[in-house]
Amino acid sequence: EAQVTQNPRYLITVTGKKLTVTCSQNMNHEYMSWYRQDPGLGLRQIYYSMNVEVTDKGDVPEGYKVSRKEKRNFPLILESPSPNQTSLYFCASIKAGGTDTQYFGPGTRLTVL
Amino acid sequence: GEDVEQSLFLSVREGDSSVINCTYTDSSSTYLYWYKQEPGAGLQLLTYIFSNMDMKQDQRLTVLLNKKDKHLSLRIADTQTGDSAIYFCAARGAGKLIFGQGTTLQVKP
What residues 73-102 of chain B have any CB closer than 8 A to a CB of chain A? Predict the structure, then answer.
């Protein structure tokens, strides 16, 4: 089954404790992207990747890092989380060309105390 | 920069039609999308329309595009309680998707 998986689905942590949210897709898509969703703001892009070892900043990259060492995986790293990073995070995999349809993971709800 | 705007809330009665509106600023957007997000779930692509089309119909869904006014709408006919969700409009521009804030659709029995 074609899918995008994220782990963990829920995480409560404390300020400053490094964490990684994993994202994996099994559709062999080149493009992947991370978004955060906040009430009244919709989805804002954090980082995206056009292929292995190719990443670029989205609209709200501050406080986040990503890596793309393999095509299927695109982890999101928070080196020193802060309370303003409390949010709902979505990973997406994009079938490039044509309609550029985005396939979303189920989301990770992160709370930083 | 590019922007996509939606109203935040719409309430309808079961069986009525729902119309969710969206405006966007990037006139070079080639595709425009509607996504649905049910509670606790990720976003699911509902439908899309290519910028050279005025209308697209898919069962109960009708998408209307007014390219001159940069206005997109999603009409859901015979709205059901299962249609209650957040609906996001998105425009493809400058190599990425720009999402609106999302419209929460409440369907009353």
Answer: 88, 92, 96-97, 99-102
